[in-house]
Amino acid sequence: MIDTFDYSLIDWSRGQFALTAMYHWIFVPLTLGLGFLVAIMESIYVKTGDPEWKRITKFWMTIFGINFAIGVATGIILEFEFGTNWSNYSWFVGDIFGAPLAIEGIMAFFLESTFIAIMFFGWNKVSKKMHLLASWLTAFGASLSALWILVANAWMQLPVGMKFNPDTARNEMENFWDVLLSPMAVSKFTHTIASSYMLAALVVIGISAWFLLKKRHLVFAKRSMVLASVFGLITALFTILTGDYSAKVIAQHQPMKFAAFEGLNIGQRGAPLIALGVVSSTPEDPNNENLKDFAFKIEIPNFLSYMAFSDFNAFIPGIKDLMEGNPEHNIMSAAEKISRGKLAIDALAEYKLAKESNNVEKMAEARAIIDKNIQYFGYGYFIDNPNSLVPNMATTFYSFHIMVALGFWFIVFFGIILLLVYKNKISTSKFWLRFAIINIPLAYIASQSGWITAEMGRQPWVIQDLMPTMTAVSKLDANAVITTFILFAIIFTSLLIAELSIMFRTIKNGPKPVTEAEVMEKAHAEAEELHNS
Amino acid sequence: MFENLSILALQQYWWVIISILASALVFLMFVQGGQTLIYTLGKTENERSMIVNVLGHKWELTFTTLVTFGGAFFASFPLFYSTSFGGAYWVWMAILLAFVIQAVSYEYRSKPSNVYGKRTFEIMLFLNGALGTILIGTAVGTFFNGSMFSVEKGNLAQVYDSTISRWQTPFHGLEAVLNWHNVALGLAVFFLARILGILFIVNSINSKPIFDRAVKQMWYNALPFLVFFLAFVVNLLLKDGFAYDPATGTVSMVNYKYFTNFIEMPLVAVFFLAGVVLVLFGIIKLLFMSSNKGIWFTGAGTILAVFSLFLVAGFNNTAYYPSTYNLQHSLTIQNSSSSHYTLTAMSYVSLFVPVVIAYIYWVWKSLNKKQMTEADLNENNTHVY
Question: Which residue has the higher pLDDT, B347 or B383?
Answer without folding.
Answer: B347
